[in-house]
Design goal:
The protein is an alpha/beta fold. It contains eleven helices and nine strands. Strands 1, 2, 3, 4, 5, 6, 7, 8 and 9 form a nine-stranded mixed sheet that branches.
């Protein structure tokens, strides 16, 4: 009987582990760091994959330390392998499950990232990044830059897109993809030797009709740099959850402002909402049944019946 109880406890632990794995895959995003111009110390191709679930802040720290961005972007630190541009693409579409599964929501983007990643001399992959909930990725990136370069951040060499949420008014912002190309071309002529520009492009999401897709933006900017002969290192990281909640809030405020808040506001549950509700419901039901099963086994194990009965005496 005790063996059955141990098997039940083991099954419970396995179920919890599976649940934790499902939650990790559903709530994490991938990040890729690569460069065709940087190499490891021994001159060989340097590739690595960090399978740990890490926070977005830890990712930024790894980019500046393992990726060497603190040496590239801090003007007081001189390095032998300098690059001209450090590109950052903050997407809104990919989840960790899209990269690991053959059936993903954006195969063209995954294939483009895979091609750039595998063809580079230096590459690091972070498949499981906990998506930031309170701060946006671009804010964490800027904070990490200020921590890595406390004495001289070099703000004049930093450019963000208008779609990025950055409160620093001294940072230059560009409106569209063509303005980024023009800026990179102009900086190629005026950039001093040893300087590295930080260029951050935030995706506007698939709901914006005027925006380029993430695959198009990445491909065109990388091609523009390669044609100009500029050396670069690039980081792609996805941040879809803040974008989804921000757009929902934005639609709610817009509809409330028109006076149709009671009629126009959609209260339907989207795919992410349905997935979370079904998952939580399954977890609660599963825990209840497991507790009932374990309680029943314990009660059965506690029953003490006699092994033999006395023979009744004849009167």
């Amino acid at each position: 009987m005790m063996m059955k109880i141990q098997i039940g406890v083991l099954a419970f632990l396995v179920a919890i582990s599976a649940i934790e794995f499902g939650l990790t895959s559903a709530n994490t995003v991938p990040a890729f760091l690569w460069s065709p111009h940087l190499q490891s110390a021994n001159g060989e191709v340097d590739e690595g994959v960090n399978y740990q679930v890490m926070s977005a802040k830890d990712l930024v720290g790894s980019v500046f330390t393992q990726g060497g961005w603190s040496n590239l972007l801090c003007s007081e630190k001189k390095v032998e392998q300098a690059v001209d541009v450090a590109l950052v693409f903050i997407g809104r579409e990919l989840l960790s499950s899209d990269v690991s599964s053959k059936k993903n929501s954006n195969p063209a983007l995954v294939n483009t990232l895979n091609t750039l990643f595998t063809a580079s001399n230096f590459s690091l992959a972070f498949p499981y990044i906990a998506a930031p909930e309170e701060e946006r990725m671009e804010t964490l990136l800027l904070s990490g830059l200020k921590e890595a370069c406390p004495h001289n951040v070099g703000v004049r060499n930093i450019v963000f897109s208008d779609s990025c949420f950055v409160e620093d008014g001294t940072i230059q912002k560009l409106s569209d993809l063509q303005s980024f190309k023009d800026h990179l071309l102009a900086r190629r002529e005026t950039r001093k030797e040893g300087e590295t520009d930080l260029v951050v492009l935030c995706s506007e999401g698939s709901e914006s009709a005027q925006s380029h897709s993430e695959r198009e933006s990445i491909s065109e900017l990388v091609s523009s740099l390669e044609q100009a002969g500029s050396k670069y290192t690039a980081l792609y990281v996805s941040d879809p959850y803040w974008y989804t909640s921000y757009k929902t809030l934005q639609r709610f405020l817009a509809e409330s402002g028109t006076g149709n808040s009671s009629v126009g506001v959609s209260t339907t549950c989207d795919e992410l909402c349905k997935f979370k509700s079904s998952l939580l419901e399954g977890i609660l039901v599963g825990i209840v049944f497991l507790l009932i099963l374990i309680s029943g086994l314990c009660c059965m194990a506690g029953i003490d019946t006699p092994t033999r009965f006395e023979t009744p005496q004849d009167s």
